[in-house]
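User: I'm putting together a teaching handout on how multi-component assemblies are represented. Below are the sequence lines for each component of a complex, exactly as they appear in our records. Could you produce the 3D structure of the whole assembly as structure tokens, so the students can see both representations side by side? Please keep the chain order the same as the input.
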Amino acid sequence: MNIKIEKLIKQFAKLPRVGTRAATRIVLNLLQDKNGKAQILADTLSDAISSIHSCPICGVLTDGNVCEYCSDSTRNNGQLCIVRDLSDVLVLEKSGVFHGRYHVLGGNLSGVAGITPDDLNINGIKDRISTEHISEIIFALPNTIEGKTTQQYIMSIIHGDNIVFSELASGVPLGGDLDYIDDGTLTLAFGGRKKL
Amino acid sequence: MNIKIEKLIKQFAKLPRVGTRAATRIVLNLLQDKNGKAQILADTLSDAISSIHSCPICGVLTDGNVCEYCSDSTRNNGQLCIVRDLSDVLVLEKSGVFHGRYHVLGGNLSGVAGITPDDLNINGIKDRISTEHISEIIFALPNTIEGKTTQQYIMSIIHGDNIVFSELASGVPLGGDLDYIDDGTLTLAFGGRKKL
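Assistant: Of course. Below is the structure of the complete assembly, with chains in the same order as your input.
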């Protein structure tokens, strides 16, 4: 095959959940498209690369000085939700369940993967507590060893008299059939059972 | 979400077998990558767009005047394999089963989709028969109504005394369990049974 096409397939194959087979299909589709789909994609991508960066306050991707959440004064309600990734912000926003500010860590502490506090966007949290008058920190981190370790670490470095810490509830998902729930989740759901 | 990121997600979601969910994952991965994956992809894509075009002889994508197959004199063996798409060429090349020249139609005739002979790369075939001394035309088109219609149409417009027409054999695939073979394939396999 042509070497430039091969190079392009290799780049597409590096995208998440895209293998060589799917990348080949994508590249052939792009290069044979008669409506200039490839050029539009290249232009949109270049435009995004040159203008999109992380919000200096919370870490959400934006093309402004600060992101849409940090610049929204109605969101300054004293609640700060700490998430791992931008994709978690999108999920929470789609659900409409949270109306405060976000803080994106960019990962979780992990001994195995060698991710230390310096690799994460943790330092800014302390400053935000005073400047944004944060009264509650809500951890919406993954319910994994790494997520819980990260949560513990952040709680250990933040000392504020008036800060309430909370985390998302663990338990059986809505519509969840007990047959399909793993033992760990069942244990958490039993431990956190509610009186009726 | 940021409007530029949304625009980029929409473009990625237009790629084959990539939905909005996968496109979102791809875009967030690209824009948050610290090794410049997004820039490399944009550059590789732009480079391909500006240099890749269809081979004027056979329709295969290339960045040269003619493609690697048409410029390879050892492939001028009198065999011309007619395929629908470039992806079919790649499959045949990977198998190593064919060593002649290709002709890519860019589609199949289809009344439903409104694809007429003018939409396909058919006209060049006649010229190639004389200039490349073609003695056999092998149809490697999809085993569908559209593929067979296209094959019949091409045979009807090519009049050459010394041209042999052939098509790929139909039947049970290697390792194919009869339980899982459809009736149409079984009928073809019975009709084309070989004496032992």
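A couple of points students might notice: Residues 37-51 of chain A form the longest helix (15 residues). The helical segments of chain A are 3-12, 20-32, 37-51, 86-95, 124-131, 145-157, 183-191.
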